[in-house]
Amino acid sequence: MVAGAFKATSTAALEIECYIKPISQQLDKHLLDAAMRIQTSPLYQYIQKVRVPSRRRIAHLPWEKANWTWSPLEKVEHYLRTRIGQEPEQQLEPKQPYITAPWWKPPTVHIAPDKTRGKEEHDSVVSRSRPSALVLYTDGSCINDKVGASAVTADGSITHRSYLGRASEATVYAAELRGILSALQIAYKKDHKAVIVFTDNQAAIRSVANPDRYSLVAAMRAVHNSLLLVEWKEAWMNEKTGRELNRICPEPTTKVLLLHKSVPRPFSSLIVQMRTAKIGLRQFLYLRKVPDVDDDKCECRRGSQTETWGERTRDQQDLRKVLGAPAPALKAAKFMRNTGLLGQFEAIPQTL
Questions:
Q1: Alpha-carbon 11 to chain mean position
Q2: What is the pLDDT of residue 311?
Q3: Dihedral of CA 45/49/54/55: which sign?
Q4: 65-113: per-residue pLDDT in tens?
Q5: CA 278 to CA 13: how far, in whole Å?
Q6: What is the C-alpha separation between 169 and 148, in angstroms, rounded?
Q7: Integer Cα distance of 274 and 277 in angstroms
Q8: Residue 13 contacts residue 256 (beta carbons within 8 Å)
Q9: What does residue 224 show for φ and ψ, rounded to 5 degrees?
Q10: Where in the chain are the domains?
């Protein structure tokens, strides 16, 4: 995608048009990632030990109020607490450099696309498995505010149950992982060469294949990204520049990228210019005080020459409504090319 926008185009409008978060929000995201990366490091405990906040009290002020004495890391930590709260921050677990040995190979996992396909694949795997293969089923759930896990063999001869605590103390996700662990413990004791484990939790399956995943950190990042998106929406609603695009795209959305998918770059630039109303037609050139442009009138002298005028005189449609969908937007860009009003796009081959 090539935006090809003019210098006069609103930065906020271009961020919406390209679905690129504002710089301030990108800095916020990197700051949060840095804070969590440092606080989950095994070395963070040593950083806390060498700190002596009481030594830096000024005029008997507590450390929290003497913010001008904070180190860069302390500022990052304070930012993290203000964004996600102090309790989630205290629950961050240390990340070990290697959860598994570097040469460890994950088990083969497969996730069926839907329930029907899952049942078919289950029956197929069981029917094709060796007679000596050990087949197990696992599950984790929360019933009556109690979280537990279980693992059972296909013939029901061996069952393993675990109680993890109340819902306020444990999660169903942890129970699902505990169920898989119980199944593997059964398999280890039985000493089978072929083991097949069926479970119904996709997150647990993925974490078994890729154990370097931290649910709490990932959840906190997801929450923070949601907050950033809400702030971006509010900022765009209150933005005073780029109001032409606001009529077409009232909030940030990834759908805007579909307008430029598989679209030739010149037409992609034309779409951006038409949607932002910053395009080399007479009205824009006149407002920018371009020499030799004495007025904003179209050659037909029936109105201002804007990105909507040509289409309005053609079939009484507002071109800005057309620019919200991929196929009509591409047609509008080709129509604008065919008018010959934009010299920089005359070199676009008619075959495109």
A1: 21
A2: 47
A3: negative
A4: 777 777 888 888 888 788 777 666 666 667 766 667 777 788 888 888 8
A5: 11
A6: 11
A7: 5
A8: no
A9: -65, -40
A10: 20-95+214-250, 115-211, 253-345
Provide CATH code, domain 115-211: 3.30.420.10
Helix then strand count (H, E) for the chain reads 15, 4
Q: How far apart, in whole angstroms, are the C-alpha atoms of residue 56 and residue 304? A: 66
> Apex CA 149: angle with CA 141 and CA 206, to 5°?
80
Coil, strand or helix at 325 = coil
Rounded alpha-carbon distances, angstroms, from residue 190 to 88, 150, 180, 307: 41, 17, 15, 74
* 3-state DSSP assignment of residue 195: strand
Q: In this structure, what token pair is assigned to residue 176?
A: 């699902």
Alpha-helical runs (H) found in 213-258: 215-238, 243-248
Place of tokens 């505010």: 145
Q: What pTM was computed for the model?
A: 0.59
Q: Round to whole Å and give the CA distance between 249 and 257.
A: 12
CA distances from 282 to 218, 268, 320 (A): 51, 21, 18
Two structure tokens written together for 288: 């920018």
Nearest to 149 by CA among 163, 137, 166, 135: 163
215-238 helix and 23-39 helix, angle to the nearest 10 degrees: 160
Non-local CB neighbours of 178 within 8 Å, separated by 6+ positions: 140, 149, 162, 164
pLDDT tens string 28-64 = 888 888 888 888 888 888 887 777 654 555 556 666 7
